[in-house]
Amino acid sequence: MRSSRAAISGQATGISEKGRLSLSVSLKEKISERTREKRRAGGCAATGGCKVKVCRADMEAEFREIDKTGAWGQVYQGIRQEAAENNHTLKCARKPENKFRNRYRDVSPYDHSRVKLQDGDNDYINASLLEATEANRQYILAQGPLPSTIGHFWEMVWEQRTKAVVMLNRVIEKGTIKCAQYWPLGEVNGHSDEVDLEDTGYKVTLLEEDVRPYFTIRTYLLQRLKTDESRKVFHFHYTRWPDFGVPESPAAFLHFLLEVRSSGSLESDVGPPVVHCSAGIGRSGVFCLVDTCLVLLEKTRDLDSLNIRRLLLDMRQYRMGLIQTPDQLRFSYLAVIEGARTVLGMNTGEDQVISTLGEESPDLQDGHNHLVTKDDEENTRDKPPPLPPRDPSRRSSKQRTQQFEFEYEPEDPTDTERLRERQSRVEEKKARREDKQYVREAG
């Protein structure tokens, strides 16, 4: 099993097994001695100098102390600062010919861990292979497909022998396009059961759809037309996770994770699952981190043996910016603690911790921590998104407290079309006001 997984890894990164081992060594050498000392010291050092003095003796005590002092922002900043020491290159993502294959100009895959397409003249796709060696897990984290990269996306799924796609966003959220409609909606929904991808030579057919309150499970037949081969692919779609926010509680998320696990799609004898949200770093990072932690807990049966921050820093060696906000980091802790009790049946002091599920830490009251309902989507579907603020000082106090690592600047023109339309309407209104003013003054 392990050897087949390693072969997939080498294929995805385009290097030999020997090269992978050399790469692993070089990555470790790039971590400074100071960073290694921090990690040996455990949680206190990883806070980046914040005032929270919590050691690794008790993970739940660590959670309660950070929550009590409202220090999630400081802990998160410490992780960002330490991860900033990574000097991995982004040469391929920055090539002119790949510019419009990136959804956001500030979220790119590292050269050493990017997934490479095997057909065609250009092997670039905005996706990264993440290896969680201790847990014997691999994940492909990808951006949400653009209209122009839908064919590339399904090509990657085929070439990597992926058994499941895990989608953590909706196509439209709060009036903003987060992802292209890359799968067939089905005749039952008034659309076709099939999507033909002529540019890459694949065909996707909807076989089954199971709609749940918080997520939907679909089964597709993915066909490679060139060779007339086909295989089934699962599509696990979590539909109630707000961008930059978190679900209201870990319960529904853990149920979703268990469904993905029970399909066998995360095991080492199949290709890596493709996990994506919009940028492939925030919600996708939470999913991979929580799953990895629970795998390790299954092995050790010791909650206090986990160092979540160290695991996250290790994951950030493969894709930039994993976990986007302090509240996503906090939710990851909650999901692991709750998962240890409900999924693994471990004896934890969960009552004190889980009682905080409905509360927000003082530094997380940013207006993003809510569930998006169907009514929210319908009310905003036809509304253009607001123009992004140009000057941080003009943002509201709530906006300024949210510590985004990336601004998600649109790269592809299709994502800015609504912004341009809105700007055009604003300019037209301004021109009409000026004309009226001129007429009044002339009269």
Automatic annotation (TrEMBL):
Species whose genome carries this gene: Branchiostoma lanceolatum (Common lancelet)
Chain positions recorded as substrate binding sites: 243, 277-283, 324
Active-site residues, Swiss-Prot/TrEMBL: 277 (phosphocysteine intermediate)
Superkingdom of this protein's organism: Eukaryota
Record field: compositional bias (Basic and acidic residues): 365-384, 415-443
Keyword hit for Mitochondrion: no
Domain Tyrosine specific protein phosphatases: 254-330
All copies of domain Tyrosine-protein phosphatase, residue ranges: 59-339
Protein name from the UniProt record: protein-tyrosine-phosphatase
Residues in coiled coil: none
GO biological process, one term: negative regulation of receptor signaling pathway via JAK-STAT
One GO cellular component, as annotated: endoplasmic reticulum
GO molecular function ontology, one term from the record: non-membrane spanning protein tyrosine phosphatase activity
Main location per the UniProt record: membrane
Region (Disordered) residue spans: 358-443
Family that this chain belongs to: Belongs to the protein-tyrosine phosphatase family. Non-receptor class 1 subfamily.
Record-linked InterPro entries: NR_tyrosine_phosphatase, Prot-tyrosine_phosphatase-like, PTP_cat, Ptpn1/Ptpn2, Tyr_Pase_AS, Tyr_Pase_cat, Tyr_Pase_dom
Cited Pfam families: Y_phosphatase (PF00102)
UniProt keywords, alphabetically: Endoplasmic reticulum, Hydrolase, Membrane, Phosphoprotein, Protein phosphatase
